[in-house]
Amino acid sequence: MTDTETNAETETSIDAGTGSGAGTDTADAEIDPDREATTPVPIADPELSAEAVGRVESILEDGRLADGPEVRAFEEEFAAYCGTETGVATANGTTALHAALEAVGLEDGDAVITSPFSFVASANAIRLAGGTPVFADIDPETYTLDPADVERVLDERDDIVGILPVHLYGLPADMPALCDIADARDLFVIEDACQAHGAKIDGRRVGEFGDAACFSFYPTKNMTTGEGGMVVTDRDDVADRAASYVNHGRDMSGTGSYDHVALGHNYRMTSVAAAIGRVQLERVAEFNRARRENAAFYDERLGDLPLETPTEPTGSRHVYHQYTVRTDDRDALAETLSEREVGTGIYYETPIHRQPAYETVSTAAASLPEAERAGDEVLSLPVHPALSERDQRTVVEAVRDHFTTQ
Ligand SMILES: Cc1ncc(COP(=O)(O)O)c(C=O)c1O
């Protein structure tokens, strides 16, 4: 359930200035009843404003389409939003993770603990950087890495060099506990914040906790650039290496355009993407507030049913990239909602260690009961900011009817 006490705060610098803290009892009043209802109700509905279109037109007229000042400006603004020194823009979230792992110095064969209950990109990035993903189980309430299980894995192996927690569905992983573990064992931490723009723990935004953090700007995310990603960090050495890595290992300090000091990739963001991202960043507080209001609306109306609604631990600020319920009747509920034209998603039915692409990875043999059980029971409902109140009532009625008319 949403914790109302700790989340009365509103976003500051780029706050649209409307509404109040989510999770209150006033969800009805705060949802704009004039928003058009859409049937069917989609699971995601990215919103691009006329301003974003205008900014893209300016870029197209200017003709500087690839890397350039627009990308530098977006990097600065997004890093400031996260409370970090530097941002390095990338082509997508996967390349952000890969570049960050290279930038912290991951070497071939190094092992990194991550979550098995995530989009496959979290673990793929470790493999792409030459490392071995080692899976620890998740906490069944938060769906994020369970620090106690991370300790168990660390006690069993002596080749772990880092931890890559995932802030799943918009809820931060337990960063204070995971950072303590990492500090005690001298491990790096890279946050996979691809689903959690603006999420917080004790007032600190995700991205501020690890050696680096990585974001995705895919269209369904809390803010988008079309395709795009970002590494944010306070470490100058990591920022320099990541910036170089995404630019074919170029010497970023020198004046020579074609001096390459390390192996790298072309993982650069385009100026068109950055232009969209800058406008979306101005609106992310508004988007997150709408997501939280939508989540509170569901919490209030679904809490008495035989399903689990999302948890928001004290001190955490969830940004509801997904509103994910859990029930052992998941498949039938998904079927009912599909018949009622309510879009749903299962993120993720097959945990990463059970994916066919992981058959050859030795650590895929692990038994991770909580991740496997979650894969059988979770279902995400539409929570995006474009939902009208009527859309939400359609969702609530369909879910309630499923459980009450059986
Ligand atoms: C948790 C997580 N990690 C990584 C990624 C990869 O981001 P992208 O799709 O932008 O490459 C995603 C995106 O779906 C994600 O949800």
Automatic annotation (TrEMBL):
Keywords: Pyridoxal phosphate. Residues 1-11 have a biased composition (Polar residues). Signal peptide: none annotated. Belongs to the DegT/DnrJ/EryC1 family. One of its GO terms (biological process) is polysaccharide biosynthetic process. The lineage of its organism: Archaea, Methanobacteriati, Methanobacteriota, Stenosarchaea group, Halobacteria. Pfam families: DegT_DnrJ_EryC1. Residues 1-44 are annotated as: Disordered. This is Glutamine--scyllo-inositol transaminase. It comes from the Archaea. One of its GO terms (molecular function) is transaminase activity.
